[in-house]
Amino acid sequence: MSDIALHHESDVSILGNLNATRDSIVTDLYRVHNSWLLGWLRKKLGCSFDAADLMQDTFSKILQKDDLTSIKEPRAYLTTVAHGLMVNHVRRRDIERAYLDALENMPEVEVPSPESLNIMVETLAKIDEMLDGLPDRVRSAFLWCQLEGLSHAEIASRLSVSVSSVRQYIAKALLHCLNMNS
């Protein structure tokens, strides 16, 4: 059942018109700009298949937007949405490649299943997204503490900073992660 309470027939009519407007805006965006966007993505990625996937993802993301009537520069808008998706795509691909490289030396019986591999890469991509934007020292201190279990003193030694600085870095990283989830 919808979260939106419709009290009058006019509410249904208004929502129907809004949906029709949204659909026609997206249809027009797709009809006029899909070839251009596909070419732009293909040029950036160097892969027709990835470009086609990201073009579809771009229009899917636009379909989820509430207000499409404010789009004044369609190509700039499409480029912004597609660029964000492309950055995430490249980041995820790099994480997957690094993880597969790390697994390469594992005994075959310990190599995770394709499903587990996908879950692990998704998890690593989410962690990477959460830590994006943090200074290198803050990110490194947080990851060494959480993933390698290093003490604050060991991290301080690696970074050539005081233990107090390490505590501040880790606190900053935790606060950043909490803000990302809220």
UniProtKB/TrEMBL annotation:
Q: Which residues form the RNA polymerase sigma factor 70 region 4 type domain?
A: 125-177
Domain RNA polymerase sigma-70 region residue range list = 29-94
Is Signal among the key words of this record? no
Organism superkingdom? Bacteria
Could you tell me the keywords of this UniProt record? Sigma factor, Transcription, Transcription regulation
Please give the Pfam families that the UniProt record associates with this protein: Sigma70_r2 (PF04542), Sigma70_r4_2 (PF08281)
Q: Which PANTHER family match?
A: RNA POLYMERASE ECF-TYPE SIGMA FACTO, RNA POLYMERASE SIGMA FACTOR FECI-RELATED
So what family is this one in?
Belongs to the sigma-70 factor family. ECF subfamily.
Q: What is this protein called?
A: ECF sigma factor FemI
Q: Which organism is it from?
A: Methylophaga thalassica
Q: Which gene encodes it?
A: femI_1
